[in-house]
Amino acid sequence: MAPLPLLLPLHADPGNQPPPLTPERLLTAWTFEPWVVAALVLMVGLYLWGVRRLAVRGDHWPLGRTLAWCVGGAGTMTIALLSALGTYDTVLFSVHMVQHILLSMVAPVLMAVGAPITLLLRNLGALGRRRVVAVLHSWPAKVLTWPPLATALMIANPYLLYMTGLYPLTLSNDWLHAWIHVHFVITGCLYFWPLLGLDPMPTKLPHYLRMLLIFITLPFHAFLGVIIMGSPQLIAEDWYLAFNRAWPPSPVEDQNLAGGIMWGAGDLISLIILAVFFVQWFQHSQREAARIDRQLDREERLAARAAASGYDAGKTPGQPPADEEYA
Question: How far, rounded to the nearest angstrom, does the alpha carbon of residue 101 sit from its chain's CA centroid?
Answer without folding.
Answer: 11
